[in-house]
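Hey, quick one: can you model this chain's 3D structure?
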Amino acid sequence: MKRFVPALVLPALFTLSGCVTPVGPVEVTRFHTADVSLLGKGTISVEPVPGADAGNLEWQSYRAAVMRQLVLLGYSEAPPGAGAQVATMALSRQTFQPEGRSPVSVGMGGSTGTYGSGLGVGIGLNLSPKPSAQVATDLAVTIKDRASGASLWEGRASFTVSSKSPLANTALGAPKVTEALFKGFPGQSGETIEVK
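Sure thing. Here's the predicted structure for all 196 residues.
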């Protein structure tokens, strides 16, 4: 008995498989003091860097994702203004349109030889669609001792995806970026890694 898959099902399967296409890595750089014994324990709050707009929903989503990672590392959450340590957070998200190549290109060539000369002209048409907009996210977190103000750890994560990617959505992107930022915490000081 032969089975067949209706022709409409196959395109749907390919469309669904496109939804789980891997995306580019998160670039992470971290720095920390030589003595890391104070990291990953005690109470901590996540607060904005001076001048940051901490009232918007996007910032709050990233703040919650950062706190989730800090709790997983062993910290206990403290309210803003309290806690033995403070994690100051800066967030930047920008949408930009990458430059595409020219839709028309013209090439010319010529030659001379024993039997005469020749001249040729070629025209190329770029029929590829305009590249989609990109969303770039930069997240920076600094963990400080609240009493002394001394920096104990600093980390930066950068992540760029197509605006059509599900990860361009803050609800999905925030956990991915923060997980990458704190992966292998505290990390090797001064090293830049790519986390997929």
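One thing worth noting: The chain is about 20% helix and 40% strand.
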